[in-house]
Structure formats: C-alpha cells, structure tokens
Design brief:
Mean pLDDT: 84
Radius of gyration: 25 Å
CATH superfamily of the largest domain: P-loop containing nucleotide triphosphate hydrolases
Strand content: 15-25%
Strand order of the largest sheet: 9-8-10-11-7-12-13-14-15
Order of helices and strands: HHHHHEEEHEEEHHEHEEHEHEHHEEEEH
Largest sheet: 9 strands, mixed
Number of strands: 15
CATH class of the largest domain: Alpha Beta
Low-confidence stretches: 1-10, 13-18
Distance between the termini: 73 Å
CATH architecture of the largest domain: 3-Layer(aba) Sandwich
Shape: elongated
CATH topology of the largest domain: Rossmann fold
Structural class: alpha/beta
Helix content: 25-40%
Number of domains: 3
Number of helices: 14
C-alpha cells in the first residue's frame, strides 16, 4: 500500500472530523478495496468469518498507523458494517441507507455517482472489480427470478425496499457492468412538500386538486428524473377514498396512499421466451376488474392504444406518464407510439382520439440547480384543421423562477371555474 494512498485517506478523514463515523467508514472502505487489490486476495469467495478477520485486521492497521481516537468497539462495529457491504450489495449498502441520496449510478467498478437534491456528484466509493459488480447484481436478481447474462444483458428489478434497479453488462456496456438505482422514498411526499420545494404554487395545486376531483384524464409529461412518479403519488392522495384504483407498472414504484388499490406489474419472458405479460395485457384485464380509475405508470409502447381506448370508454379520471420535453411534444409522442404498434390509423382520427381521451397535460422539468417543478399545465381542447388546439393554463417563468397563471386565457379561466362540467 503506497504512503500517498494511506496519508491521503487519513487526510480526508481529518477534514471530515473525528466525530464523523460515516466519513471514517467511507475512507476505510476505499482503503480496504485498495488493500484487496494490492494483496491480490479474493475475499468474496471466503466464508464470512474469514472476511470479517481480514477486514478487522485492516481496520486496526489503518487506525493504529494514523493514531485515530477510535475504540475497539467502534472498530469492530465499523468492520462488521464493511463486511456487510463487501458481502451484500457492496458499496451500494451505505448509499442505500443514506436518506439524502436519491439516485445511484454505477459506471463500471471504479466510478459511482450519486444524486443529492437533484444534482449529481461522484462518490469516493468503488467496487473491487467487474466481478464484484456482477456479484451484487446477481444478489439483487436472485430472489426475483430475473436473469442477466450475455444472451439477456439488460434487466429491470426492484430491491426489497422498493427501489428500482436497472442493470446492463458487457458486451453491451463497454466500460464494465452498469447499475442505475432510483431509490424508494420511505416518507411519502405530500402536496405541502411540493409547495415547500417550489414544485408548484398554491393556485396550481388548487387547480390540480379540482381537476382530479372532477375526474379529468391527466397525462404527466417530463424527462427522466423530473418527478413524474412523485406527482402521480401526490395526485392519488386527492382521489376520493371510495374509488377503486388499478395501477399498472413495469416495475412497481407508485406508493398510492389510498384505501382501495389493486397493483399489477408486468412480467418479462422467461429463458425460453415465454410467459411474458405486457402492459397492454394488464390494461385489458384491468377493464374487467371494475376500476373507477386506471393509473398506468408510464406509456412507452403498444399499450398506448389500450390506455387511450380505456380513457375514451368511461374510465374518467385515469392518469399516466410519458417521456417528453413539452406538453405538445407529449401528444406527438403518443402519436409516435401508436405508429410503432403497426396499426394503421389516420392522422386526423388519431389526433381526435388523443384529444377525446386527455383533458390535461402537466409538464415537469428539472432546472440546472436541481429543482424539480411543473413547467406548464395545458388543457387539451381538440383538433382544428388537423392541428392540436391547447390552452396553457399555468406556466413557469424561467427567468424569475415563478409560476404564472394565464388568467387572460378565456378557455383556461372557464376550465378553472368549472373543470369537468362537460362530464
């Protein structure tokens, strides 16, 4: 072990302060990984007792060499936590327990990025090697019956706490196995939290509350990590407790705090290519389950026609999300997805179907400072001369960061006063 590496670690710990056990563990984690590399040992194949002895020896060595004021009990506790990380989910363990980390991105064994308050930072943690990353992925997948190998190099999964995981491995991932973790929030956000975070303002919240109550069909649009699922969760809190909700997701993320929810999840094909249950299958089945509302986690494929038909056939108040950069783009995105189904639908007919299905599009954005907020709320009016007619009801003024209510818009003002009256 080089002197530079040792003293660099001690210096980082000194900067963190001796009263920061978490900081010490981060430094020790890196120190032990470096020691494993230098010693050429394969502790991952050993029994837990052997791994524990190796780690405690290294912890004692580090603490003694740098004269740190750490008791024997504290050293043993730190060593036990480090063993959990090495034999469990590796360096992901400490990040999964950190409530301030919202996303974890592993780009090969040596580069781990984390998101805090909407901003990405590179972590000092790392895996031992590619095999260490693969072992962690397999530990995640083992209880779920999912497969990941050269013939199926991509997978979506869910951790026991509900966090969503995506993994992709070589030869598809050129720089080593990659993991993306969207962490599950244990504390469900309320509408008051969105106000505090400036994700929306009071006028916008009151409008959305009334739109949900009046059973408007709502599409939540935005890019990755803009808070689409979070907003769906908050809107579910505004639904009357007597209604029956059916949710459909590829990977269950919605945390609907509602007394009557049926949760459905898609299933990928097995190793023989059989047994797949797609979102479109679940939507058709949901129609037979007497739902008051259908909530589709995300529209991303051939299920688009099924959900549009459901919204057009009496299932008012349904909601879903889609990836798009603006409210208008979200409508065009739905057209594109219909085209990918291979079904031939005239453009005018398709646009009329989309307009008949949707009442509102709520567009989300993430600003450079990490703030996630609603950038516009748009009413879908209809089609005129084969072009979508929409009304912007609320929008974000990016220069000032404040929300603007388009009160001068007569159609928007009428919708505010009597949203859903046509129903």
């Amino acid at each position: 072990m080089s002197g530079e590496s040792l003293f660099g670690g001690a210096a980082r710990y000194t900067q963190l302060g001796h009263n920061d056990p978490q900081g010490l563990k981060l430094v020790l984690h890196r120190y032990i990984i470096d020691a494993i590399d230098e010693d050429g040992v394969n502790i991952l194949e050993g029994v837990r007792s052997a791994v524990s002895q190796y780690v405690i020896d290294k912890v004692v060595e580090f603490v003694g060499r740098h004269h740190l004021a750490v008791s024997r009990y504290e050293m043993e506790r730190l060593a036990e936590e480090l063993v959990d990380e090495l034999t469990g989910f590796g360096p992901l363990e400490v990040l999964l327990r950190d409530p301030g980390v919202t996303e974890i991105l592993v780009n090969g064994p040596c580069r781990i990025f984390i998101e805090r308050e909407g901003v990405l930072h590179q972590s000092d943690l790392r895996f031992i090697d590619d095999q260490h990353v693969l072992r962690v992925i397999q530990r995640i997948l083992a209880p779920l019956g999912r497969r990941l190998d050269e013939s199926s190099p991509m997978v979506d999964a869910r951790l026991p706490d509900g966090s969503r995981v995506n993994a992709i491995i070589p030869p598809i991932a050129l720089d080593g196995p990659c993991i993306s973790v969207r962490k599950f929030r244990k504390d469900l956000l309320q509408s008051s939290d969105l106000l505090a975070y400036q994700s929306l303002d009071e006028a916008m919240l009151q409008f959305i509350r009334r739109a949900v109550g009046e059973r408007c069909n709502i599409l939540v649009s935005g890019g990755t990590g803009t808070g689409k699922t979070t907003l769906l969760n908050v809107m579910s809190l505004l639904i009357d407790g007597h209604e029956r909700l059916v949710t459909i997701e590829d990977t269950a993320e919605l945390q609907l705090n509602h007394p009557h929810v049926v949760r459905l999840e898609t299933r990928p094909p097995n190793a023989e290519g059989r047994g797949e249950v797609a979102a479109s299958d679940l939507i058709r089945n949901a129609l037979r389950m007497r739902p008051d509302r259908i909530i589709l986690g995300e529209i991303r494929g051939v299920e688009v026609l099924d959900v549009l038909q459901a919204m057009n056939t009496g299932h008012d108040g349904s909601m879903s999300t889609v990836h798009a950069n603006s409210a208008l783009d979200s409508l065009l995105r739905l057209e594109t997805l219909v085209g990918l189904t291979g079904r031939q639908v005239a453009e005018r007919t398709l646009r009329q179907m989309i307009c008949a299905a949707l009442d509102l599009v709520v567009q989300l954005t993430r600003l450079p400072n990490g703030r996630r907020c609603i950038s516009e709320v748009v009413e879908v009016v209809g089609v005129r001369d084969d072009v979508y007619v929409t009304n912007c009801l609320f929008r974000l003024d990016r220069a000032s960061g404040r929300f603007i209510s388009e009160a001068a818009n007569p159609a928007g003002e009428k919708l505010r006063q009597d949203v859903g009256a046509a129903r």
